[in-house]
């Protein structure tokens, strides 16, 4: 274990080491490149995710090309909680991701332990009106 570095390799040094160790399994390669931790029980855990991220970064592949535009705000967690006043706030991040605009309407369906929000589509409402109009025209034609 002498050849295992104490700090993880990055950049060209990492790519060179990966090439040298290409005959070894992935976990062993990651371990020898320094991507591991030792637990309280002296067990070694290999950090494959960190290793893969470092290899991609060393090759110049962006990991998250669509990051936050200005670096402010929080990452969406897709979890909400009920506020003291009984309201649930979804948040702008989610509505923007869905392409929702101010004034969009939803129908609320309550389940045993869930809530379904079903978007009321303006095009659907107008097509339903048209379908009813067509039926009326057919009735008047039959009478003639």
UniProtKB/TrEMBL annotation:
PANTHER family (UniProt xref): SLL0359 PROTEIN
Mind telling me which Pfam families this protein's record contains? Answer: AbrB-like
Record region (Disordered): 124-144
The record's annotation in InterPro entries points to: AbrB-like, SpoVT-AbrB_dom, SpoVT-AbrB_sf
Q: Which keywords are on file for this protein? A: DNA-binding
Record-given protein name: AbrB family transcriptional regulator
Where are stretches of biased composition, namely Acidic residues? 133-144
The SpoVT-AbrB domain extends over 77-122
């Amino acid at each position: 274990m002498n050849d295992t570095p104490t700090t993880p390799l990055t950049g060209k040094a990492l790519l060179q080491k990966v090439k040298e160790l290409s005959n070894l399994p992935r976990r062993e390669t990651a371990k020898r490149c320094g991507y591991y931790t030792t637990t309280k029980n002296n067990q070694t855990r290999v950090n494959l995710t960190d290793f893969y991220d470092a290899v991609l970064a060393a090759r110049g592949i962006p990991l998250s090309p669509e990051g936050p535009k200005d670096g402010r705000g929080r990452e969406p967690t897709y979890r909400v909680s009920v506020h003291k006043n009984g309201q649930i706030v979804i948040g702008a991040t989610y509505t923007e991701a869905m392409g929702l605009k101010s004034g969009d309407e939803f129908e609320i369906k309550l389940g045993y332990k869930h809530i379904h929000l079903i978007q009321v589509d303006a095009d659907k409402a107008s097509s339903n009106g048209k379908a009813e109009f067509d039926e009326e025209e057919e009735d008047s034609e039959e009478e003639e």
